[in-house]
């Protein structure tokens, strides 16, 4: 059976990181299909919807994800199995904002219960990578794009 194409990417970003971050890096990486988004190269019609986690411990994601699923279906006829959620690099890596989110497992569980596919990673900061190489930040998780 054919695998359904991805039609919508949700990019969840850390509320604390977003106090100073515009989110440009994640959307730029998605638009150019680089960093955590290389898997979507050639999929010109894929839409990106960035949103915040809503603050610790990420419980608001249940409501935001439900809203996303409903609106995607109603406004663009996108089914939830055509949606992939990326947990942004500010959540899943040790980086210039903070160490990784301590609630990742909880957030991932919420999203999976909603029937959404989850991937880790978005924008890859060269500065953060340099600091990882220098041993100042922890290395990337193996499952992180
Ligand atoms: S739940 Fe995680 S991603 Fe959200 S504000 Fe807290 S630390 Fe940031």
List keywords for this structure.
binds iron/sulfur cluster; 5 helices; Rossmann fold; alpha/beta; single chain; four-stranded parallel sheet; 145 residues
Please write out the topology:
Elements: E1 8-13, H1 24-31, E2 47-52, H2 61-76, E3 83-87, H3 89-92, H4 104-113, E4 117-120, H5 126-133
Iron/sulfur cluster is lined by residues 14-16, 53, 55-58, 91, 101, 103.
Describe the structure.
- It is a single chain.
- This protein has 145 residues and is α/β, with parallel strands linked by helices.
- It has one domain: Rossmann fold, CATH 3.40.50.
- 32% of the residues lie in helices and 14% in strands.
- It contains five helices and four strands; from the N terminus they run E-H-E-H-E-H-H-E-H.
- It has helices at 24-31, 61-76, 89-92, 104-113, 126-133, and strands at 8-13, 47-52, 83-87, 117-120.
- Strand 1 (8-13), helix 1 and strand 2 (47-52) form a beta-alpha-beta unit.
- The two termini are 26 Å apart.
- Iron/sulfur cluster (SF4) binds next to loops.
Using the alpha-carbon principal axes, give the shape. Answer: globular
Which blocks of ≥5 consecutive residues have pLDDT under 50? none
Structural class: alpha/beta
Radius of gyration: 15 Å
In round numbers, the mean pLDDT is 91
Strand content: 5-15%
Question: CATH architecture, please?
Answer: 3-Layer(aba) Sandwich
């Amino acid at each position: 059976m054919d695998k359904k194409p991805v039609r919508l990417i949700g990019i969840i970003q850390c509320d604390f990181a977003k106090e100073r971050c515009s989110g440009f890096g994640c959307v730029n990486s998605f638009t150019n299909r680089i960093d955590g988004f290389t898997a979507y190269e050639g999929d010109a019609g894929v839409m990106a919807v960035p949103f915040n986690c809503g603050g610790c411990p990420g419980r608001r994601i249940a409501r935001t994800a439900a809203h996303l699923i409903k609106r995607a279906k109603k406004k663009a006829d996108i089914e939830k199995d055509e949606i992939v959620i990326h947990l942004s690099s500010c959540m899943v890596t040790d980086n210039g904002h903070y160490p990784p989110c301590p609630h990742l497992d909880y957030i991932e569980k919420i999203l999976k219960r909603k029937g959404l596919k989850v991937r880790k990673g978005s924008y890859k900061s060269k500065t953060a990578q340099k600091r990882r190489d220098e041993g100042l930040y922890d290395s990337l998780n193996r499952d992180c794009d």
